[in-house]
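Researcher: Structure prediction, please.
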Amino acid sequence: GFKMQANATYRSDLPVKYITISKWCERWLKEDYEKEAQYAPNGLDMERFQPAVRDFGTQKLRILVEGNSDDYYKNVDESFKIVERLDPSQYEIWFMSYQGKPKEWYRVDKFLHRVPYSEVPQVYHQCHILLKSSILESFSYPPLEMMATGGVAVVAPNEGNIEYLRDGENCLLYEQSNIDSAVAAIERIRQDGSLRQRLYDGGLKTAQEHDWNRLEADWKSGVFRNSLRYFNFHRRNLSGDPDWCAGWRDDSSFPGRSSAEKTGQCSPSGSRAVSRYPVRYLRSVRYPDLKSSDV
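Model: Predicted structure follows.
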C-alpha cells in the first residue's frame, strides 16, 4: 500500500538528501531509518498576517474549525463533538477546509471551501478562537497563523505543534479526546480578559519568532548556511505565489504529489510535499545548477 511505498523511500540507499520541516521528523528519520536530515524551519509572512484585537464583548463569539474532514489524522470530528457542547446562542461556528466537506451531523454556520491562501488571513481576522484537534501533523500552521492575526487557539497537542505551543502562554491546550477539557478552555477564554491578553501577547511573540525575515536572517548568519538556497525555495513555495507554484505543472507525475500540486496550486500546508523532494527533482524543476552540497 501507500504507507509501504513511502517507508521504502526512507530505506533507500540512493544518494538522497533529506530535508524536514520539523524537529520531531528529524528525530524520527534518525531513530527509525538512520537517515540524517537537514532541518528547514517553517515561517510566516507577517506582512500578510497582521494582528488585530478581537471584540470579546460581542453577543456571539466566532469559532473557526479548520481541517480536512475526510482525513483521520486531522480529527475534525472531535472538534465538532466539542462544538455540540457549546451554546448556539453564544457561539457561531465557521468551518474552513481545502479538502472534505461538513458531515451531516456537524453544526456549521458558515462553510469556507478551498479559500485561496491570499484570503486566509481575512478568515482568521473574522474569528475569535481557532479550535484544532489534529492527532498528527508534520508541522501545524493554523495555530501559528491564528496567533499571528491576534486570535486565540485552543489546540490538542501533537508532535507537529508542541514545538511552538505553550499552554497558558500563547494558547490553551486540551487533552486529546477530553471534550470537557476543550469546552472548559473555550469558556475560560470567553470569561477571562486577563487570560486573553496574555495569550494575545504570547501568541504575537511566537508568531514574530517565526517571521520569514527573521528566519532568513538566521540562515544568512550561518546557522543553516548550507541550506540557504533550499530555504529560499521552501519559503517561496509556502508563500502561495501563483507564478512560483505554476512551475510544478511541468511534471505532474512525480510520486506523492497531490491533485492541488499537479494543477500548480500551492496550499497552506504545501511544505509537506516539498520536504520530500530529492535534490535531483529540485534541480530539474527550478535549480538546474543545484548541487547536493547546496542542501
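Model: Residues 242-295 have pLDDT under 50 and may be disordered.
Researcher: Thanks, that helps.
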